[in-house]
User: Fold these one by one.
Assistant:
Number 1:
Amino acid sequence: MSRKILVTNALPYANGDIHLGHLVGYIQADIWVRYQRMRGHSVHYVCADDTHGTPVMLRAEKEGLTPEQLIDRVHGEHLRDFTAFGVAFDNYHSTHSAENRAYAEDIYGRLRAAGFIDTRAIEQYYDPVKEMFLPDRFIKGECPKCGAADQYGDNCEVCGAAYAPTELKNPYSAVSGAKPVLRTSEHYFFRLSDERAVDFLRAWTRGTNASGERRLQAEAANKMKEWLGEEGENKLSDWDISRDAPYFGFEIPGAPGKYFYVWLDAPIGYLASFRNLATKRAAAGEMVAVEDYTDAGRAAAAGTEMVHFIGKDILYFHALFWPAMLKFAGFATPSQLCVNGFLTVDGAKMSKSRGTFITARSYIEQKLNPEWLRYYFAGKSNGTMEDVDLNLDDMIAKVNSDLVGKFVNIASRCAGFITKRFEARLGETDAAACAEFAAAWTEGRIAAAYEERDYGRALREIMRLADIANQYVNDHKPWELARHEGKEALLHTVCSTALTMFRDLSRYLKPVLPALVAQVESFLALASMDWQGDWAPLPAGHAIHAYSHLMTRVERKQIDALLEANRESLAPAAAAAARSAKDAGATQTSSSQQRHAEKQQHAAQAAETSLPHIGIDDFTKIDLRIAKIVDARHVEGADKLIQLQLDIGETDESGRAKPRQVFAGIKSAYDPASLVGRLTVMVANLAPRKMKFGMSEGMVLAASDADGKNAGLYILSPDSGATPGMRVK
């Protein structure tokens, strides 16, 4: 049955550039949307710029622009960057829109009528230098829960706690650096602590949607339980939804000088963007029933879904405030929250001084292929809230090995024979050789991984099939068949079979690599491929186009140029001296921590590079062999070990393969099922070692981060063409 899904992404704030950390969640959502459409489902994919609040107002003032001029410019920049990375929204709108104002006022009015809005006088921080009340994000200090320094006034980025700005310890104004003073002002509150809201949220955060899927990932649901408390306990506070002038946003109806807090109208921007899309579609003659997705009663009857992709830093707002607002205003609540973690680069937070705070625009300007990053992020995504580490050397190796060495390699080795020898027409296909490719679809292994957003699992299965395709080509050696008279028919079949395999791999990879697969569709003269069509081999006589190179290898010098382009010089001492005492103190602490971290990193790197030199004779004593993992399983009672059976080309007396048993400490990094069929590198002449669980007859090679933690383990994989037993030298 066809699904009807509204998919949204977190709204980027209109006060800065899109960087690679942002792109993790957008690429994950875009892959899921493309997969759903290939399955024949109806998907509306919308987003918008989050435009309101003091930061935009102050930046516009600094640049000599009106807020409207600033957000218009940033809107174009954001959409440009998303488009460059293949993130294909159906509509990219703005929260500063007529649709958003109408929805915000409607929802506010409904909540007020339902008794969920209170007004009360509060003490609020005021900047005596700037002469303005300070928004939460412009007050900084120490977290009242965990004590972390330099935290914002509404929530802690270290422990995730939410609190009032007045709870901060040692507060200071992020605008002027002055110590803020308390003044009284009347504010509007959403009664999140109302027992009706608490009871609803306790059930909603633990429940499932109409499809039987959990609305929240396990990690997110556990966090909600922590924030909500146990049954009979109420740990929620009412939510301040108003701000005083001057403020860039929507004025609250009937409350002059009071504005909706940006976090009230920002998620409403999802609905506004969808409404704007429907208006555009209606003008083109296509009707989109918005209320079938947004009205609680109609959505239930229509069986529609609303799926939000967000980062874990905004989980509190999306799993508590947002569904409660929707519920008690009579709107449909989200079907699912898909929460992603943060991005680290080479195991550390993004850093401007190290050049790893990489903007999307600089990546494009350095002429790096956006689909290299899409593929790498997909391979690191497993459907959980775990952080994603962009290990740049690993990205180089992964793209070059998987996409160039395995995937593209299939077509480049076979297409020329078809065009030159057989008038660009395919011959008969060895259907038996292609059977496993269609079986992967029939059995649903790859589809299930895409559905669960475990893209890493999907890509491991796809690359296993790519290994089969390359092995088929290696076994039949079309380059040798072409040199022997009388082998033309076999050559035709082998190359046609390989290209059918290549087509199927392309279809599986299309959600991740849409631009590359569009080139494949053109080369193979195929209509846009989906996952509903015939998986039979390409027919004999099918004409293809001349092959042109599909993807280049990543070079380290390209990555180095990217880092250099993003490296930012340290601020001169004079600028630091000009800061306020508190601001300077905070900066000094941050710089000290950064220097300490960099010192540790340099020490680790120095330790790695200071190993004594060896001679060629020492190296030749090590027998490194290509090994195929024929079996992998967990070891009962072992926390770190996986038991591997490795084929290195050895046979017993009867000529049957005789694999070696190796216990490898890679359990935290790999699922045993994902390893079977992979090629790796093994130390074959390591003395056997008797272990508690059995005899280990060698060692597999793996790369790791500087401190050798398992989170950074990557077993080595040879390029396509290597076979079990080959010597590495």
Number 2:
Amino acid sequence: MNKVLSSIVALFSITTLYAQSPSGEVPKLVVGITIDQLRGDYLEMFRHTFGNKGFNRLLNNGLVYSNVTYNFPNLDKASTIATIYTGANPSYHGITADKKYAVESDSEISSFTDNKYLGNFTNAKLSPLPIKVSTIADELKIASGGQSDIFAFAPDASQALASGGHAASGAYWIEDYTGKWATTTFFKNKQPVVDQHNRNSESLSYTIGSITWRPAIDIEHYNAFPYTRNRDKFQHYFGVDKKDNIHLFKQSPYVNSEVNSIAIKVLESSSLGKRMNPDYLAVTFYAGNYEKALDKNYSIEIQDTYHRLDQELGRLLDAIESSVGLKHTLIFVVSTGYFNEQEILPEGVVTSGGDFYPDRSKALLNMYLMALYGREQWIKKYYNRQFFFDKKLLEDKKINLAEFQQNAAEFLVQSAGVQDVITSHQMLHGAYDENVQFYRNGYYKGITGDLFLELQPGWRVVDPQSSAHQRVRNNAVISPAIFFGSDIKPERINRTIEATEIAPSVAYRLRIRAPNAAKGEILKELY
């Protein structure tokens, strides 16, 4: 009898659980806005220059989480956006960075390289297939029986492909050399509005020579940083350096206007959000530094970038309101959780730390391994704070990989500037440790290296191939996440959420399955 009662109670519990659903109707349109390098502290510091239609509308009327965190190392524009849309870490979705080291060709390539597909308005051969799991957009396409339209627009290919996923109707990015809106033949349908834009005089390839970035408002209003030295009106003309002008353009607020304009055109011309099934629009903006700013520690340019981004957000929200209605749209805005800053030390200032030279470290390690295992080139590459060993050589010499990695790690950890060294064997088979797990979340077999280096804060990584030498900082960047629109109750939540919780929460609101690798909890405020 007790077993029968227990079974009935269990049955009702399960039925009740599955009967739960979000309050209100399913949104007709979902708009995912990822903002690369958006900082929550800058939002507050620069807020006096914002209007009422952009950030302030989101902050005052949205569900605002004070901070979102990513639980893996070496965050960048590709790994973070893939995590947002899959609800999984790189150890599952496979996008460990924007670029990766290809052992077979001994070269640096895009993480989305796929030689099976040609480019459209680009020579790059790319596809979303390197994403190893499903995305929110994929699950929506499946749930709607293929009827939902899904579009993604971003400055870079990795951002567009990560946010559009496998099932997008189209994923577009700004080509690095021509400024055209490019895509891949993986996506079978062409978007007429984008093709028309590429061929007319409005295309960036025709207009970039006439674009000059000057302050949008009087620079006296850009007073958030009391330590700014250069308070002159800046002027950056993108027609000067034709070899690098698109690259620089993508670091300016004008890239947000370019992305926004094409996204709004497609929103309005494709009748997104006006059919039975929900549609999906993914947009990526930029809120990082401009590498040629006169003062890289505290710049006027970053304040102008936020002011102009606020205007673009207002323009997008107005277009959504006019076309679909904000009450019928679920909008989420998420930061990528990191900030690239080229730190400049005043002349004569000496701090703790030093210079870490990857090439020297590689040479010393190889000499040590030669002494242990014989005169061979044991190391294939140092790349993105990882060492890649010659696996075929190790197999031919019948050398135990785990032992080899451990010996190399024990040597490297004694080097100046090295805080810790994690081996791939530790990550896959070692005892649990929080730091090891952190690196494990960013590891994907066949893509990442044999050793991960954790460098000490204050040390500068000197790359002979680049003039920009990054100084290690472990500061947490305050990175907000905002939900707005469709039956969202305005509220400020002062807790840190995981980036992996966003995808299952959006899926819950859409009443579809979460992406297949998403293990995160649904944010309780969205129930």
Number 3:
Amino acid sequence: MRNILTILMAASFSLAAKDFSRAILKAPAGSIAASVLKEELQRRTGAKLNTDQSHTITLATDASLPKEGYALEATANNIRILARSERGLLYGVGALLTYGTWTPNQFEVTPTKQSSAPAYPLRGHQLGYRSTANSWDAWTVEQYDQYIRELVLQGVNAIENIPFMDARPSPHFKVERSRMNREISRICQKYNIEYWVWLPAEFDLNDNSKRAPFLQQFEAMVADMPVLDGVFVPGGDPGHNPPELVMPLLEDLSRRTSAKIWLSLQGFNRSKEDFVYAWISDKQPKWLGGLVAGPSSPPLARTRERLPRNYPIRLYPDITHNKICQFQVPHWDQAYALTLGREAINPRPFEMAAIHNRYADSSIGFITYSDGVHDDLNKAVFNAMGWNPNRDPRSIAIDYTKFHFSSIQAEEIADAILALERNWNGDLVANGSVEATLRTWNQLSLKLPQLNTNWRWQMNQLRATYDAFVRRRLIHERKLEQRANAILLREDLTPSEAIAEATKVLKQWPLKDGLREAVVALCEALFQSIGLQTSVEKYQASGAERGAILDFIDAPINNRFWLEDEFSKNPSKGRLREIATWENPGPGSFYDDIGHEFKSPHTEMDERDEPLFWWLDQGRSRLRLSEQTTMWPARLRYEGLDPKGTYTVRTGGQGRHLLSIDGKPVAGDRKFSVPAEALADGQLVLTFEVPKDEDHLNWRARSRLAEVWLLKKP
């Protein structure tokens, strides 16, 4: 028995964590990885390396390891990080900082032996220094350096800048734009990663008075950059030039740089695609790096099939937007869409991991489409999946919290972040976990007060607080609207009296429970810490949709605006009844708010069906809420109808609605009589054909479906 205990105690002792916060650091002269390790350890622990002779950390090169791989070995007194290059050593340092446990004055590491290399050769993000971004235009060179450093430690090997587009001067610029472009290139050179630029041609390429200066500007930029590894020219979004003009432009750019030129087919139709594939197959240009697949690009499988195999595909996934985008938040409540806009703080780890793996195998990797720090966790998820696509999103969130917040409470914090993703899933009124998420973040902030000045922590706090505030507002404002509608139906009131009483009720909309003040304070803290611009007026955000959530903190999320406008028309008693019963048409009749999944019980959606949350009048639309969310659903199904009843289908929305009932087209214009024979089985299936002759129209002007009523004649 004594021998067994001795063995167990010895094993326990040998695996015990040892403090390396003051270890002797040995590394090649001038190693940036060594400098980063020293600075990051001191930032986390407050301790300085090279004072404890009993422990050593060694960084060394090993030509036998994979190109970007590393090996990490820790024993009781020694840590060794080996890599083929300085870039690999940085990845090893990132792994060590994540693996170890850091607390004030300590960095404890248990014995381990591990090695790793990335699955995909390209892993990067767009960090464009321009006025449009919701935070980066407020950054200093030092902030860019730190952010890029942290991304590299997570496995990034490329950064893409936007040097020309959006020439508006930002009120937040700390550094003149051409200098910051140069500095970002220098930072990439410092950390041994690639520097790319995104270079749209937003003018008519036939216009030489604009084309020649564009090329001269590019040539001057190339000469000014310490490094340039890739040039990405989007074919569209923005840009509307035909490929017959785009391809010669790419050739001209290639003569002015040794960097590879990349092209996306965003917005190209089939004939334009065919031209590009044929041009590449015929000319086989050596300067072409490959094609980029991004928002509004042709299907990835078709691009891979048509593109010659010697040219790779690079992904350009949109990880930054919530709606009207490549990857809209699924099953999102309209209340969020109305108050959060397109660029809210949006940790979506499980969804981002799935998006990465859905497309990755057709590519060499990614440089994501990002427009600010609000998608910071999404970047971390792509970094991790690009390194190892078998990673579990929860484990990625844990590593993220260990690296940025706390080695001790990492799992607890990670689960609180994952809860933010669940906040956005489903009917907001029914999602009581939103309140639990807020309580969790409030408790964590009390437990870990040292993190309340950390901007990443502040972002999570703001999301938890804002989500709960929106939910409480939604519940409150819906009750007010229901009370107002009940008043409109009262027979003892004249129309003017009913309107006056209903207006009094609707004016009780401001919700005062302390959360609003907390949101305002957190928005101010984030502007001070990271330059996050949550308001156009207060913080000079470049646009209301760019994360300016503070500008919508009091905007109604019921139909108050629409009701006020209807009241101003001096409606009759009959019209007031129509208004009050809009969504409740009476016994035997049914209403579906198309696009609002949780108020459309008869709608059946196929996999690709998703609502479009419109952004009208800069988010200030006074239309009825049902008109601000539209969709062409797969079908609407009704059961248990009266076979002898008389029914009419009425629709709301824009343009033409081409209705079929049980597969047979029905004549009508927003009002359709249901054939008696269709009711014989007491069931109906409604389908809509999307008008096929509207391709020439701007997408905003095309037909769209907002509402469907199935009305039974009394």
Number 4:
Amino acid sequence: METRFLDSFVTIAECGSMAEAARRLNVTPTALAQRVHVLEDELGVKLIERSGRTVQLTEGGARVLARARHFQREVRELKASASEGAFAGELRLGTISTALTGMLPAMLATLAARHPKVDVYIVADVSRLLYHQVISEALDAALIIAPQFAIPKTLVWRELRSEPLVVLAPTALAHLPPLELLATQPLIRYDRNNWGGQLADQYLQEQQIFPRERFELDVLDAIALLVERGLGVSLVPDWPRAWPLPAGVAILALPGEAPVRKLGLLWRARSPFSRLFEELLDSSETVGEIVGT
């Protein structure tokens, strides 16, 4: 049995689409379907069923998926243990959207220089979903916002950044107090479906500010562009940016002690890549770029 056929099946299950899985694997949908057929013949069970443009796992496929993911992990651990100090194999890394451009490039550059045999597959999502993917072992590690609950001892957490909440406002309104802006101007809300947005929402409630909401979205760079257009103000963390804020946007500090969004790397304590993560985060060039952003 070819391991890439199992990898293809797992990718199809994760994408829910044969076409999307084919794009991700850089093969044709026909070739991908042939891999699945071969795998079904070898296992003697039907794995997926097509429904329009999507695919659904059969009962047998769901059982095989759990074992296939376990097998993938075993293969990665085998490659890591056989590498004699230099890691090899696939690393599945999750990241929130703000870290994707502000923090991740420095980490990937260091990783590529020190461990060129490691192939990195990146998943971008919100912290809540990435956290559970690390627990379920669908991801090896994730750059996420620190949860507001205790992290179990089966996981390792390394904080990389501490970001106070700030108000983004058009420069024409920068002379006004930030709390007044939040109370009187349309709010471009940081998405409450993620932990950072929940932190901002909690602050507004504590200040008894009930803003007139105009938009709600997750991408902080896009929020800044909307603020520049004069469409409102926003309450966001002072996030790591790959490029400067638009010229028409001002950053205003909150009065007193502002709530803080903490970003860091999360991984399983028994991960075969634990030493790689520790080494990566301890490297002066990576940490310097991340903290200094």
